[in-house]
Amino acid sequence: MSIAVRPILSALLRNRTGAVLVAMQIAIALAVLVNALYIVMQRVEKIGRPTGIDVENILVVSSAGFSERFRTVPSIQEDLAYLRAVSGVVGATPINAIPLSGGGSSSPLVTSPDAQRSDNFNYFEVDEQGLDTLGVHVVAGRNFRHDEIGPPLTKQDASRFVPQIIVSRALAQRLFPHQSPLGQRVYDALNQTATIIGVVDPVMGSWPGNEHPDWVYFMPRLPFAFGGSTSYLVRTRPGQRDTVMRIVEAHLAKSNPDRVINFVRPLTYFKNLSYLGDSTMETFLLTVTGLLIAITGLGIFALATFNVSTRTKQIGTRRAVGARRRDIVRYFLIENGLITSAGVVAGCALALGTGYWLSLEYALPRLDLYYLVGGVLTLWAVGQLAAWQPARRAASVPPSVATRTV
Amino acid sequence: MFAYYTRLALKSFRRNPGLTALMVIAIALGIAVCIMTLTVYHAMSGNPIWWKNDRLYTVTMDNWDPQEPYREQPRLPPPQMTYKDSQYLFAANIPERKVVMYSTNGVISQAGSVTPERVSTRLTSADFFSMFEVPFLYGSGWSAAADSPPQPVIVLSREENDKLFGGMNSVGRTLRWNDREFRIVGVLDDWFPRPRYYDLTGGNFDPPEKAYIPFAWGVELELLSNEDTDCWKPEKIDTFKDFVASDCIWLQMWVELPDAAARARMQSLMDGYWAQQHKAGRFQRPRNNRLTNVAHWLRDREVVANDNRVLVGLAFAFLAVCLINTVGLLLAKFLNGAAVTGVRRALGASRRQIFIQHLIEVGALSVLGAALGLALAALGLAAVHHLYSAAHLGHRGGYQELTHFDSVGVVWALLLALAATLAAGLYPAWRVGRLPPALYLKSQ
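^ Those are the sequences you sent over. The predicted structure of the assembly is below.
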């Protein structure tokens, strides 16, 4: 290296305000970049978790009986017979709550009658097509049979349990960590028992935001008409969801004057709504971080351009006394590198401090150090790139400039 | 002099259009991002009935599982009440006004010519409307006499009245609610408290219900809540009768207490009831009977999401970078023009005049930046509104309710812009005023 760092440094120190300002920008930019990207990655991971459900091809129907003449069970049977006959429909099930929607039911389940009931587990009431409609596979044991599907709870026997249940793999591991769950007995809040007859693939329940959204079980029963409303899930062949939705909506609206159809919507609607806060956070953080880097880069570029134009004479003089073009380029890049390095060092402290504060204040996980390394490299690259063109322009100053104004 | 300096500033902008544009854009972006996050934050953190903060209290008692607290906030009692406890406290005549209530769904039919439709309906008592200062367009709420036994009276929201009766005065007409005849006694005017403090069990920014009927219909017609119902106790609940006698929580209770004495009496009523029930075997957790005002209630229920605090922080960090950027560029620019400044100084301009001249240039920049920033913020908020409305399929409720750009927001924005840029311009303007003119004249 033919150019020593020392003269650049002392030149910088003689005129430090500009350099300090750039370093401050870089420090803040680094702290924001690193922490924002870390938060974004957590959200991306959260939204991207597999649901185990064929979300894209499922639609949700909600119907509410309201007149004295309305009868829940015959209405469910009639609706199911219709839905299953529509061309393009793979399966349909009545269900007590909409998966991934943020609303649902949960109830305790324990493995011995005297155990402490500390956890409520999310459950779904479905019929024999329930699992196939969701697109959930039975990995052990078997599915519900048609003759096992019980009548809905009523306002006379609302605490009735079911004889059989199917559990998600995660719940099976939670309840029976060391044994096969098949054939095991479980107890509800009132010590009524059911036998586990099947285990299904991981499946996400009603609350994607919960710590364990996949602790789910299924009951073979028509759903309780909660507030008079019954929901159905309908799974269609890929690509036919919207067509089926239109047909179904038009038919059901007129099929029974004693009820109203509250809505027919794709399941994606509920999933997107559940993650709306996370996806907005992602968009906002990425946009602002992108703008921040752009502004910082442009600021460095503009300042470097300015510096070159004010130092034309010095550059010319240096060229006249023997500096090569690449010495000039190198001078400016090293100068930029020094400033960026100072900013990055301060930025690391700021980033770690911010990360620590966020983890305390908002219960976010502690910052991953890989992000810091990535952020440092990014800002270095941005700094050098921004200084590159001005440095090239500086190098093209002809040595004759030195003599011109003297 | 002002006009002259403004002309000088414009001339200076024209000399470096790229640099000027960069500074204006940086200021505008910084301000726009701040205004957007602050608008949402402001809307979230508002107390829609602040003037009643020393009168209005929500009532909660810890009836939860002796083995473990209700959810994540062990310090707080559960946010809702059981039927039996709320009924006991409701019978007291200490409060000036009192309500026990919940929300359900009902189907309205045979109203006007509209097809039957499910509407969210609040089961509440007569005081609801005066207590929460709900405005009426037509008619009024029902009298306390209609509460018990429940009379078939119903109040509609303005939106629902528009839909059912085309906005006409429908007071006195009847409709069927869950196939039972109800008489319309009142129509609300526009009313949309954000956050929906009176009931935070659903979405915090959901619109109020579309219909209101007396609370006692709930038991009469055996209507369940369409929001959270939480139970902890292993008890056999087969019938609605079992349900109302259970330790399940599903009701919101509010009281209006005119002064500290009334508050103390209400508190001692609760504590006395607690002690008596405790002796009888209920309430086995530590005594935690609370009267919570709206401000504390919103804080306890964590209405402002952590994400929004993080975003406000991010916005200010961004603004800081934009401003530092501007300081750097202004400084470079002003010092570059030092030769001209030197000439002006030599011709008799004072330091003060140089300072003011540059400050006016900065001021012009800040006006441009603020205007552009305001426009960008409005655009950005419209985009967020659009995004959320689309996700909600156009229904109300949710974050899109928080994106309204109010007059407070505009004032904030202008102040922010002005303060920020002037702060950014102060140092460069001062520096250039301090330059010794002789030094710069020499090199000419």
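The CA atoms of residues 74 and 237 of chain B lie 26 Å apart. The mean pLDDT of chain B is 89.

Shout if you want it in another format.
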